Amino acid sequence: MNDHHVLSLTSTATDGAARTGRVVTARGSFATPCFMPVGTRASVRTLSAADLEALGAEIILGNTYHLMLRPGAELIAEFGGIGGFSDWHGHVLTDSGGFQIFSLEPKVTDEGARFRSTYDGSYHHLSPEGSVEVQQLLGSDIMMVLDVCPPLPSPLGVIRGAVDRSAMWATRAKAANAAARAAGSTQAQFGIVQGGIDVALRAESAERTVAIDFDGYGIGGLSVGETREEMLPALAATTAVLPADQPRYLMGVGDPRSLVEAVALGVDMFDCVLPTRLARHGTILTSQGRLNLRNARFARDPEPLEPGCACPTCARWSRAYLRHLLSVGEPTAARLTTIHNVHWLLGLMAQARSAIAAGTFDRLRAEVAEHWA
User: Does residue 198 have an active-site annotation?
Assistant: First the structure.
């Protein structure tokens, strides 16, 4: 670990560009490649910190935009940050708030973004420095810089503007965190690469972000409307530039096929609302692909969601019972299906780590490709 970096990636095995290892932080360490369940409002929807511990999650994601509005970052700081507030003792990564803000069509200048709260319509301004300040209060182990995240497709000029402004904001975000770092802060800070699906812009953005020198690197602006076939070359152009000894985090990607393809390109960290959102709508992740639990054929099915699954839900309850809960709108349904989906996705990452270590990762890729389009 460089003396000015507060975390490091120790790679224990590689299989092609795929790698497995551990990210070591001031808090401890977590295994990679890893999936981070999304705890938007200091909670993964329908689950508690105890549930996440039981499922073996080592790191979760908190949402800066939502938490700064409600209950407010200062209040959370009074409780010792997101971990103290929610009694979660694992790692926390906070996003910068940018992704949510850019979905609200904000007024953006070089100074930052002005946007309206989805809660009460009040106006707020978030700058690169302000995002750092909020995340310091939230007390995450890893904070992300504020970036510009355009939807795809966007005109090349818009993508170019996002790359330039994101680089400028990243420089300011690092400077904003410098005093805390000089005073001994162990909160890591990741830069974010933009560039849409333009391979040259991706490489340029990666080079400019690496030159600022962060503890790790997020890959943003993907999974925002483009196909997987468009995403992967842009991702490959990015990982080729990012340092091998620092974590690489593909933001907002969670479908099983994209996960394993990104791992094959050397990505270490992922987050997505996919497993929790699908669960609430009755869509179950299985090794054979998606299962729609609302389907009438499961009304009398005594089998668990996935035979052989070791999650708490599959250990006790049948498809028939869980389908009934979904059909009558019983909140327990979302909780029990979410437990399964999060367990399944964490398990897929564990399989990836084992396969890389065994040199059989291509076999896992083929299996996932067979069942997931």
Answer: no
